[in-house]
């Protein structure tokens, strides 16, 4: 009987769908305006990203992709933009061994274009030239993160 249940689970169809995509939080600051508009536009962009997965209920997950950009001219901050782009995903029958990877790569790959568009829009509305972020390889970031975790595990034991 237990063997039949395991076979049924293995043969169950994987289900994945996007239920909702939304901006959870958005911040835009221009601390050195209007002076920054007089400066020669040679920006230095510093970008940080994080990804958080929260189980809402069975098979429903909220993924929040946080992108923070600090754009400086010389040593003055031209602008700072923070976007928490979120999505609710229905995920069913994905094996546990690939669930973490799905939450860390597939979902952010879906959310990133929305965050990119929001950032571009808010930067333009702030009076600055359009900023188009380059695509991000979340799969490579995940592999790198796993390797770093394995290295840390080795050094602590």
List keywords for this structure.
157 residues; Bacterial Protein-export protein SecB; 4-stranded antiparallel β-sheet; 3 helices; globular
Note down, in words, how this protein is organized:
The model has no long low-confidence stretch (mean pLDDT 90). The protein has 157 residues and is of the alpha+beta class. It has a 4-stranded antiparallel beta sheet. The protein has one domain (13-149): Bacterial Protein-export protein SecB, CATH 3.10.420.10. The protein has helices at residues 2-11, 96-125, 138-156, and strands at residues 15-29, 44-57, 60-73, 76-92. The longest helix is centred in the C-terminal third of the chain and has 30 residues, at 96-125.
Characterize this entry briefly.
By secondary structure, the protein is of the alpha+beta class. The chain has a single domain, classed as Bacterial Protein-export protein SecB.
